[in-house]
Amino acid sequence: MHKPRFLDHLAMELGDRDAFTVAFARGRRAFQPEHVEPKWARDRAANIKHIKLEVGLDFDAKKISGTATHRLSAIAGPLDRLEFDAAELEIRAVRAGGEPATFETADGKLRVALPRALGTGEEIEIAIDYAGQPRRGLYFVGPDQAYPNKPLQAWTQGEDEDSRYWFPCYDYPNNRTTSEIIATVPEKFTAVSNGALVGTFSDGAAKTRTFHWRHDVPHSAYLITLAAGEFAMIEERAGIVPVTYYVAPGREDDARRAFGNTPKMIQFFERIIGVPYPYAKYAQVAVNDFIFGGMENTSATTQTADTLHDARAHLDFKSDPLVAHELAHQWWGDLLTCRDWAHAWLNEGFATYFEALWCEENLGADEFAWNVRQDREGYLDEDANHYRRPIVCNRYRTPIELFDRHLYEKGSLVLHMLRRVAGDDLFFKSLNLYCTRHRGANVITQDLQRAFEDTTGRNLDFFFDQWVYKEGHPEIEVSSSFDEKKKLFSVTVKQTHKTGDTIAPAFRFPVTIALMDAEGREIRQRVEIKEREQIFNFVLDKAPKAVRFDPEHDILKTLKHKRGREALETELRHATEAIGRAAAARELGTEGSRQAAEALRDAMLTDKFWGVQADAAAALGTIRTSAALDALLEALKLPHPKARRAVVRALGNFRGDAKAGSALADIAATGDESYFVEAEAVLALGKTRDERAFAHLSEALGRDSYLEVIRTHAIAGMAELRDERAIDVARGFSAYGRPPRARVAAVGTLARFAALRDDRRAEILDFMTPLADDREFMVRMRIPSAFAEIGDPRALPALRRLADRDLDGRVQRHANDAIASIGEGRSHVEEGQRLREDLDKLRDDNKKLQERLEKVEALARDKPV
Ligand SMILES: [Zn+2]
Fold it and tell me: Helix H segments across 564-708?
């Protein structure tokens, strides 16, 4: 499943980057309340070998009906009763071995009494006639009065345990079965499912068409899929593998743009895993209103139609991470499946790391390191502001709670560090052994460790213990000194994190220390860190200009390493890795001197990697001197849209500055080649609170763009502007029938005003409360953090309703977080507001000091010494 990054990414694109990070950002709390008991993998009575679904979809009634036939054998006889998961399904009849069988349904289970007991290994076929009008698992989407152009579609989402809502089954990953779907849909529709298409036939009288799909490689029930709608099909090949994309008619070009790298990715993954793509075909179906970014249903991935984009969006938006993620799951998740959710990082950590590996292959080392940095920051944010847990963890209320940044991002980083421990060659050999040894089977983390140990000959207990079974990461402090007499340069590395039962007292990892001279020449030494404090000595003629600890940023850690401005400037100019130059740029931003600003200006205008340009721009945005402003204005011409976007964002920090306001107003008025730069300019203009802003933002509300990015930034910009007229604008855009993403942004803007304005709070809250019951998933998903931001106990009943009754586990989790957050009583917004104001004041003081310093320096230059 592709969840956090894609949704966060979208939230970011929408100018709503605070949505998930700020509202709950009140420090680390426990992952789970004390009373939550461990959950262990389920016991199995039967081995289900084949599932055949013969189903019809009724789009008018939003119903499914048909027969689910299971071929199974008893694991340990005698077996006289069988239990299936069947949530909210009407069971009409059950036949066992062809004879009618008695059954009962209760608590989401179907219990079947077998006519006679099965002996160990004995096989039987159980056919279940059923019908349902699912609220989960199977989703019918289509036009209504408010959204008349939405295509009519149905799609399923099994993970984690929702297949039971659309067919009776054993709904847990630790059973693997072949599957077959014979699906009847309206005659113009295509039904896509797992495996090979056996055939189709039409019924002219009934105006229906039936698709027969069959999948011969055993997989888990949550991976069984059905997606139906009016689709155009695009066919490609990756070697012998047929590759297909299904999209709404008219979106063919967008589909090629979004999915076009799929064949290359298949061949790349085949090569590095050393295991050919294992299924009859690889299809991607783009559907509307999908509740995740993508879902790796075996050989037939479902993707959100939101990832389809036009040429203008393609300038700075790519679907590759999403596509690579779901494709990687075809091996990691589908061919090998975590035995239980506690080990789900074996699915998600892998898929996330393979996004990065594709990025490395396709775009090179710097983009790869950038990708890894995003993973690291995502995890560190969750760790610092939400909770800390071991990656392998069986204390949860619902499995979806585990699908977080520990599972995805930290999981990915752990694989990256494992690669650095093993080396590239042995890393991929180990993955190959793990894959070939366990293909077609369920896996736990110990299987992965064993494969690496068998390949490398090393004992990796320490590695898995510190990174996977224990929690946290090292907090590192680095300092250095030079002994002129002995010509000895010493680098001291300390691990300063608080120790306890749940975290390794000292992490053990290999790392590089690089010593750089003024010209950028380096000595690099690979060392092993394994103690709380270690000193590394180097015999040198003179002290190096810069010391770089972990120059490739491979290790998951926080780092305190005080370096002077000159060291940072040297790194910014000379470091081979863009990731290192960017880190230097960020740190120089906190230094704030005129020289720092000059070095940042140089980097922003001339560095060859956009990320360094972007970080330099952001740093100048925090320095906020007039020199910094001039540099940023100059950088508006940067060709890379992502760099330009950072420049525009930085200009938003110059509140009340007419020059910054004018530049942003120009972009807001005339537009930019990139949707995202244009959108960012609109938001930044709001932040400057320029007097022209409201007019420009209002005008931008009328502009269509990819994923509503301009409109949503305009709505978010109005919250920044603090112009009361925005309340009515946001109310208008929050209505059902307006573009869904604009509605989400409107919720954010309303929350901001409710939080800031005591006099309007009750009224806005009353208005927002019904949105907690909205039909749109995205809106309900945004409500908890919005209410947390408002921090008003009057929001609690609506939040409790969401926590108890919402059908989506993520909404429940957010609602519980929001309840806890409001319960703590501090208004997070007031506090945030106060901090922001303090920060602004400090920045202003800094700006004045810098300007005085510049004047004094200029005067001093003219005087004789
Ligand atoms: Zn995934």
Answer: 565-574, 578-591, 594-606, 610-623, 626-634, 641-651, 658-670, 675-688, 693-700
Mark the residues whose beta carbon lies below 5 A from ion ligand 1. 1-2, 348, 351
The pTM is what? 0.94
> Position 75: which residue type?
I
**The residue to which tokens 């011409």 are assigned:** 637
Cα 160 vs. chain centroid, distance in angstroms? 17
* Residue 352 alpha carbon to ligand 1 centre in Å: 7
Residue 567 to residues 480, 546, 579, 585, Cα–Cα distance (Å): 12, 5, 16, 11
Widest CA span in the chain: 108
Q: What CA–CA distance (Å, rounded) separates 788 from 678? A: 30
Q: What's at 294, amino acid-wise?
A: G
State in Å: Cα 173 to ligand 1 middle.
Answer: 15
CB atoms near residue 581 (< 10 Å)? 26
C-beta atoms surrounding 726 within 10 Å: 26
CB 497 within 8 A of CB 533: no
Q: How far is CA 111 from CA 70, 117, 160, in A?
A: 14, 14, 22
Q: Chain-centre distance of CA 734, in angstroms?
A: 25
CA of 604 to the centre of ligand 1 (A): 35
Spatial strand order of the sheet with 533-539 comes to 533-539, 488-495, 475-483, 558-561
Closest by CA to 51, choosing from 179, 221, 192, 197, is 179
Of 311, 297, 293, 401, whose CA–CA distance to 355 is shortest?
Answer: 293
In a 10 Å sphere around its CB, with 0-12 CB exposed, 13-18 middle and 19+ buried, how is residue 676 labelled? Answer: buried
709/693 Cα distance (integer angstroms): 18
Residue range 228-276, pLDDT digits in tens: 999 999 999 999 999 999 999 999 999 999 999 999 999 999 999 999 9
Q: What is d(CA 697, CA 717) in angstroms, rounded to the nearest whole number?
A: 7
Would you give the DSSP letter of residue 434? H
For the stretch 584-635, pLDDT in tens is 999 999 988 999 999 999 999 999 999 999 999 999 999 999 999 999 999 9
- In a 10 Å sphere around its CB, with 0-12 CB exposed, 13-18 middle and 19+ buried, how is residue 243 labelled? buried
Helix extents (H) in 722-827: 725-733, 740-756, 761-768, 777-790, 796-805, 809-823
292 Cα to the center of ligand 1, angstroms: 10
For residue 72, list its beta bridge partners: 48, 124
For residues 122 and 74, the answer to whether their CB atoms sit within 8 Å is: yes
In eight-state DSSP terms, residue 637 is: G
How far, in Å, is the centroid of ligand 1 from the Cα of 296?
7
Classified as helix, coil or strand, 89 is strand
Place of tokens 């005339």: 670
In the reported structure, the alpha carbon of residue 326 is separated from the centroid of ligand 1 by a whole-number distance in angstroms of 6
